[in-house]
Amino acid sequence: MKYGSKTARFLAAATTAVVAGALVSCSAGSEIDPDEGIEGTTIRVTLANHVWTETIKEMIPEFEEETGAKVEISQLAEDQLSDQYNVKLNAGTDEIDVLMYRPLQENKLFASNGYLSDLTELVENDEEFDWDDFQDGPAALTTYEDEVVGVPIITERTVLYYRKDLLEQAGLEVPTTLEELEAAAATIHEQNPDVAGYIGRTGKSAAVTQFSAFLFSSGGDFIGEDGTSVIGSDEAREAYTYYGDLIRNHTDATINPEMSWAEAFAVFQQGKAAFIADADSLYKNMIDPEQSTVSDQVGFAAFPAGADGAKPYNVAAWALAVNETSENQSAAWAFIKWATSKAQTIEMTKLGVTGARTSAWEDDAAIADFPTELVEAIKVNGENGVGKDRPLVIDVAKAREIVGDPIVVAIAGGDVDAAIDEANAAFDEFLLEDSE
Question: Which parts of the chain are coiled coil (predicted)?
Fold first, then answer.
């Protein structure tokens, strides 16, 4: 069945997060039949506060009219959503049919606990839905042990933001390699002592997401194929050292050791930095003249290549899944199929909500309001992107603290090798416990 779509208008966005709780096994609900009629069914959908949620809510009457089903939305703020998932999914609830969840944090936890229904045959055997249209990185992130357990709805990639005027003044081209990025940062800072050549996240946990692009592009990773830590490899050591030097060596300012994206962006927005690599979903913060004093000088580029090529993250920040214990699984899948269809994804893209479908980035109407340079960077990063920006474990928060410690030491100019050795041992111990 084909569904129509209408362009919604919603201007506010919120940052959300989900933390799930204890581990239990759940009994299965009903089987999913894609051909089952759903007229008269009430589909209970739990969503996070997000611009995607507000937009899809305005489109739902169309879905209800065409299917005869009724959609009952439960929309929750970060803490409330965390509490609900922690309690209800853990208890094997059948009160949730569709859940919006964060794959980077919850995919392994939810899937290993049996919270999420297997959608593999549904997505792979439906030519109209076209699972191959989803980019590899986000699709891999909503897969667990070769089973598709979720469908991506919101994605992010690393993009290189840069100051056009400072590059022109220095007579430099946009960096395409990490070596060129370091050289450009050094040159611009030398010419403009009050401007940092590069600024980035410095907080132990927050920095892991952006550091990952440097790690992957250097040929490193967090976890090896045998499930043990590889942050002590030569490639990882090079990435830790490079990231620390890039931030520390090309500024005269005191570096805030607790910067997340907001604080790092503020430095760039105030005209005090030449480069920053961060999420492309945040681009409007850079080009909004009410937020940025350099809004008319911001350029966008694909992430520069390291020794192993350009490998930024390309991740699904949010996804939809069917609750395994739902008694309305066929109707739940019908909702997800509609909400993540090509038509709906294009409408979301028009509003600046970036999705995982390749077709949306090839639709001129969908990308009309995006800066051309940004679209090109997104396409390149989408093709090269890795489907993670942190260790994909059950206790993600603890893992980020461990692997993030050498980042902080590197930025501070401390003994990086010693910090890596300590973190590598701690991460190995953590992975052993995490797999039990």
Answer: none
